[in-house]
Input
Amino acid sequence: MNRRIAIQAQELSFNYENERILTNISFSIGAGELVALIGPNGSGKTTLLRILLGHLRPSAGEVLLDNRRMQVYAPKQRAKTISYVSQQIGVNFPLTAFELVSLGRFPHASRFRFSTADTSSVTKALDATGALHLSKRNFTTLSGGEQQKVLIARALAQSARILLLDEPTVHLDLYHQLQILSALKRQCVEQQTTVLTVLHDVNLISLFADKALLLGSGQLRACGAVAEVITERNIKELFGVDMKAVEDPETGLRFFIPRDPFRSTIEQT
Amino acid sequence: MKLKKPNWSLISIAVFLSFVLGLSVGPVPISFFEMSSTDRVILFNLRLPRSLSAFFVGGGLALAGAIFQGLFRNPLADSYLLGVSSGASLGAASAVVLGLASPVASFAAISFFAFLGSLMALGVVFYLGQRNGGFSIFRLLLSGLGVGLFLSSLVAILMLMAGEELKSLIFFFLGGFASSSWDTTWASLGLVPLAVIIACYFAPELNVLLLGEETARSSGIRTDRIQLLYATLAALLTSISVSVAGLIGFVGLIVPHMIRLIFGADHRTLFPLTFFSGGVFLVLCDTAARIIIAPAELPVGIVTSLLGVPIFLYLIGKEPGDYTF
Output
């Protein structure tokens, strides 16, 4: 398939106080792809996201968004190209879900007038994540899963072609995990949005992602189609855990069953 | 959640009525319809500047509180609790003691030093209240209270050293509007509305900042500039208030809290409403301060504390826990 390239990382390195956080990372992501970023805690995932968002300047290398260098984007222009859902945040003030999602229109809306086009973008975004019925509710009274749907709707309302997410399914129950990932998948397929998301669950990656980036101690260990890079061997190397691959006869997708790494020690005692 | 839309004609009526009340209460009874020349002097040279000062100081303090709350994403923040007012009063007191523009330090010098003092206090609280890039509600409050107590002790030392100027220094501790005149009113008339307009103009940016710095930056906001701008505005409003009327606590806590309950947290409506309501609130408190133990006067700061502390304690009780965000 010949896709337009949405994100291109060219030999990115990042140092923080003489410490190497990321080393020589290069990859490209095509428009409309759902890509999972996976790696152990402290492997540099969040740092990589911040560089791709333009919040951190890499010590070496370059990022291209839609084939244009990161530096040419003014902040608002960049926000119209790439949006972000950070790890869950607390909001201490009484905002309705609708008001919160409206904040996503910031780079588009005029300062004091919210146009009908803005309102329809907000409604569409709430609908896309299945949160439209929550519009009038106070955000702070929503459950974790409902809050996450609203926060993702906020990023969608920003109408950017690229969406980055940092662990969107953490703390959520199974139902909400699946609902959120399928909403993102639909966004990729129907709107040609490019999604790069940190995900820890290899089975969710198999189910939803097109590609995966494997990050270990600041280096890109593998990058490619999920079937090729999410393997027993790579998981063992990256996380030091044994997982057994099983093929689902219905979908042909490969899923993984974890092996208890402590079982042998328990049996001995 | 059902929120009311602000009714601006109702607000104008409230402002008008508070002024009528503030202008008519005092030791000398005045009839608005048959005024003698002394009545006119009392009304235009004493009570009008006093009510205007109370209005702008109240509005300014309430707005400063709302700004701090948005900036720190913390509904308990307030100039007084964060120690910023104490910083301003130390600045103002040093201007007097250092004898700038002696014999009587001019209002401009006092306000300028108050501004420097409040910026310094805010800087220290900012530094101490932060951990891992986030502000914990209680870390921030405790830092503010600590810094405030420390700076107030310094003001106390200055008072003991001051001798003759003791009286004018006590003013920066126990404030009030008894000595308000047109000289001090002009400054607040000019600067406070300017600060209100700037605060309202950048309200959309501060709204997005309620969702955290990362989200705000990814929405195209230069977060450090906006934070610096609002910190400066809040410090400016605090220092003008302290220079005009000394330490007055809790206005910035009570008023934004009430407005948020009724009208929601959107800063585009919160800021103007907070300003006008804060103004009305302090004019009423100042009127009460003149009535409660008449013919003597209570410092207005005592009235606001009596109302504010219960609300503050109630809000602390409502906090779910010490979390950072």
Remarks:
- The mean pLDDT of chain A is 91.
- The longest strand of chain A covers residues 5-16.
